[in-house]
Amino acid sequence: MRLVFLGPPGAGKGTVAAILKDRLGIPHISTGDLFRDAISRKTDLGREVEGILARGELVPDELTVALVRERLKAPDAGHGYILDGFPRTIPQAEALEAFSPPEKVVNFVIDDEEVVKRLSGRRVCPSTGRVYHVIYNPPKVEGKDDETGEDLVIRPDDRPEAIRHRLEVYRTQTAPLITYYGKKSRLVDIPSDRSIEEVVHLVEQAVRGL
Ligand code: AP5
Ligand code: ZN
C-alpha cells in the first residue's frame, strides 16, 4: 500500500503514521525525520539543511527527491510506504509519479489556530524522534521520554516565527497538491481536529481495501 500523508505542519501526520505503520505493515518515511537524523549525525547533508529546517523553509527539491528515491529502494519499502511530509511541491509530486506513484493521498484538514496550539506544546525525544504534546499527549513522566527516559526538547522550527513561516510556505508551495491529487481522484480529506484515536480510525477506514 502506497500512501502519502499531506497536510499543514502540526496536523498530526507523524503521530498517525507512527501508529499505523505497524498495523499496515509498511514503513513510516518522514522526510523531516530523515533530515533531522542527518543533522544530529552531523553528516554533509545535515550541515547543508540545518539552517533551512530551523528557519522553516523547504529543502531544495533535487536533494529531497534523491533522498526519498534512495530510501524507497530499501527492502522494507518493498510492499509500500507511508510518506509523511513528501511530496511538498508540485515538482516533488511529479518526480514521485515517475518512480513510485501513491495509491492514496490522505489530506489532514485542520485550521491554523489548532496548528499553533499543537506545535507550541510539542515536545520530542532527541534520539528517537518520538513526539509528545504537553497537554494532548503527555509523556508518563513530565519532560522525559517514555522509553529512553531522555529529556524531551522543543524542535527549533517550533518557535513562533518559524511556525508562522512554515504555515505560509505550506499555503504557497504545498497546498496546490490538494488540487493536483484531487484531479487524479486519489485524495481523501480527513478532519484532523479530532482526538488522535479518532483520526487514526478515520484514516484506517479511508485506506482499507487498498
Ligand atoms: P516535517 O518534520 O515534515 O514538519 P511538518 O510538515 O512541518 O510537520 P510536523 O512534523 O510539524 O507536523 P505533523 O503533521 O507531523 O504533526 P505531529 O504528529 O508531530 O518537516 C520539517 C522540515 O523539514 C520542513 O520545514 C522542511 O524544512 C524540511 N522538509 C521536510 N520534508 C520536506 C520536503 N518534502 N521538501 C522540502 N523540505 C522538506 O503533531 C504535532 C503535535 O500535535 C504533537 O505535539 C502531537 O502530539 C500533537 N497531536 C497530533 N495529533 C493530535 C490530535 N489528534 N489531537 C491533539 N494533539 C495532537
Ligand atoms: Zn511530523
From TrEMBL:
Quaternary state and interactors: Monomer.
Highest taxon, organism lineage: Bacteria
Residue ranges, annotated region (NMP): 30-59
Catalytic activity: AMP + ATP = 2 ADP
Written domain comment of the UniProt record: Consists of three domains, a large central CORE domain and two small peripheral domains, NMPbind and LID, which undergo movements during catalysis. The LID domain closes over the site of phosphoryl transfer upon ATP binding. Assembling and dissambling the active center during each catalytic cycle provides an effective means to prevent ATP hydrolysis.
Protein name: Adenylate kinase
Protein's organism: Winmispira thermophila (strain ATCC 700085 / DSM 6578 / Z-1203) (Spirochaeta thermophila)
Keywords on record: ATP-binding, Cytoplasm, Kinase, Nucleotide biosynthesis, Nucleotide-binding, Transferase
Segments of this protein annotated with the region LID: 121-158
GO MF, any single term: AMP kinase activity
PANTHER family recorded: NUCLEOTIDE KINASE
UniProt-annotated binding residues for AMP: T31, R36, E57, L58, V59, G85, F86, P87, R88, Q92, R155, R166
Pathway: Purine metabolism; AMP biosynthesis via salvage pathway; AMP from ADP: step 1/1
GO biological process: AMP salvage
Keyword Iron-sulfur: no
Gene designation: adk
This protein's record includes keyword Cytoplasm: yes
Domain Adenylate kinase active site lid: 122-157
